[in-house]
Amino acid sequence: MSHESVWYSRPRTYGKGSRACRVCTHKAGLIRKYGLNICRQCFREKSADIGFVKHR
């Protein structure tokens, strides 16, 4: 078996490998709260469109 055929051979159903940003498909820095599933970079870009307001 070659390395390419084994690399993603098992299904990712749980853990960090199973989740990705719904905007850019990035896997790190994911905000899962409220079912957002958006990485933090995309959240900063889209937060006003979603309806989040920054206040102190």
In short:
With 56 residues, the protein is of the alpha+beta class. The chain is 27% helix and 7% strand.
Would you tell me the structural class of the helices and strands? alpha+beta
Main beta sheet, described?
Answer: 2 strands, antiparallel
Give the terminus-to-terminus CA distance.
Answer: 56 Å
Spatial shape: elongated
- Computed over alpha carbons, the radius of gyration is 15 Å
- Estimate the mean pLDDT confidence: 91
Looking at the overall shape, the CATH architecture is Irregular
Total helical elements: 2
Count of spatially separate domains: 1
CATH class: Few Secondary Structures
State the strand order across the main sheet.
1-2
User: What is the CATH H-level superfamily?
Assistant: Ribosomal Protein S14/S29
Tell how many strands the DSSP assignment holds: 2
CATH fold title: 30s Ribosomal Protein S14, Chain N
What percent of residues adopt helix (DSSP H or I)? 25-40%
Please trace the helix and strand order, writing H or E for each element: HEEH
Low-confidence spans: pLDDT under 50, at least 5 residues? none
Beta-strand content estimate: 5-15%
Cofactor: Zn(2+)
Pfam family, one: Ribosomal_S14
GO cellular component, one term: cytosolic small ribosomal subunit
InterPro entries: Ribosomal_uS14 (IPR001209), Ribosomal_uS14_CS (IPR018271), RIbosomal_uS14_euk_arc (IPR039744), Ribosomal_uS14_sf (IPR043140)
